[in-house]
Input
Amino acid sequence: MSHAKRFSISGIVVLFLILIPLITQRTDLITWFTYTLLYITLSQSWNLIWGVPLPLALLAGALGAVIFALIIGFPAFRLKGVYFIISTLVLAEILQILFYTVLPRANVLPSKLLNAYSLTPRYYLSLVIAVLAVVVVDWIRRSRLGLGLMSIREDEDAAEASGVNTLKYKLTAFLISTSLAGLGGGVYAYYAAAVRPGYLFSALWTFDAVIIVFVGGVGTITGPIIGAIFFVLLKQLLSLYLPGGSHVMVFGILFIIVVLYLPGGLIGLISKFRKA
Amino acid sequence: MVVELVAQTVVNGINVGALYGLTAVGLSLTFGVMKILNVGHGEFLMLGGFIAFWLLRLWGVDPFLSLPLVAAALFLIGAFAYRLLFATLSGYDEHVKVKNSLLVGFGLFLVIPHIARILWTGDERAITPFYSGESFPIFSVRVGYVPLAGLVVAIVVILLLHLFLTRTYLGKAVRGTSENWKAAKLMGINVNKTYMITFAIGTATAGIGGILVGLTQVISPDVGMGWTLKALIVVVLAGIGSVGGAFFAGLILGVIEAVGAIFMGPYAVALGLLIFLLILMFRPQGLFGKA
Output
């Protein structure tokens, strides 16, 4: 796709999204869109660090995500492969335990705020953040940082040998990723008008992001967007007919199929059909 | 008084630690032999616990009698899961295999608990035969019959596994395959079958662990991931691939957590994890692994 065409298509999509609250008053629709946008932010940020082999690393904390990332990143990034995966899983667990213990009742539900609750600004904020996430990730892909990350993904030792400062690059990617996730968490807190650290820290948010990225298409910009739309749509549809939470099961099966047989995700499937 | 408290705590810690060890042994075996990091390991544990729970509830089968039944059932389920999901990965490079098996295991974590919740609701269940809760004193330390039996079961399972790996032809094949699967294949070992059996043994030990969890703690559709994480910690603590070491590392973690709880209360769990991170940073080959 040419540059101009790409640019104009994204422009039209964003314009459409801006107009939505003006077109419809249906809060359910706007809620779905808000969720989709939040998921786009979250999965874009996760997609960034999957480039480097770091699954499940995303810690969706609203506050101080970057500080945590620094504290965690430095020791953890010296580890490689499996050790890194396991250590981030465990770190997320530690953080969750600490938050539960330090702030067992940090669930805030401010009544004043609820009286003045309006969905529109929340929708716009999530739109801004989602667009920001897409733009940042797209920019990184074209930059030197993106090239470095790609080389690390292909072969970390070879990248290191050819002069790429792998630790620095991985850390930068991790910082950008977590700060985007932190922003997403902040918007979510604003959207939900309540802060429930237990809920935000629950691994489900990480898992949702992972599923979305893989089902959409890992390592692409459009993948997480399509994945997020698909995820929220299917979630709403399934919740009509099946007991709550079943969409996770359906997505789990879909996820396994994608990992085993469709490494390109939905995006890969589309481009396969195009070529055929 | 303090001595008694510490002694009692250590005993409790050993009981919990044996469970950690047993869960970790299966994970360590599958990871060590075939480089498959099955983060769905805990889900098999949960299934085992539920099978034993229903055997007791519906037909009054004693949980210790249902041990072989559950082990056999989980062996079959594991073999099936391997054939269906993990077998396609067997040809890949090591790091691709680790990554993809992690993702497949993660998919299992999404699917199995939901099926369990639909079948058995999300309630927490405990396996309670008539003798559960009974205990006897050794000096002033109380030892429960059920946890003690659990400890014995765990040790017997580990010993059997050890004998299997060192004394049988199949066990030799498993060890050979873990050293170098290509060479093993050239020596006429059926690598695919060996992998399947290894994986199934791993899930069978997880199932036995599930019974013990149900006997001493609770089982619910959501306990899987917690046990997977515990097992991962223990595996790293012991050194990846060190099957026997995993059991001892489990005991150590159990005792550390239990004793830590006296001084630190609920933060003790994080203490165990912190030690894990320190090990990871300064002795990544683990306590019992070779450098």
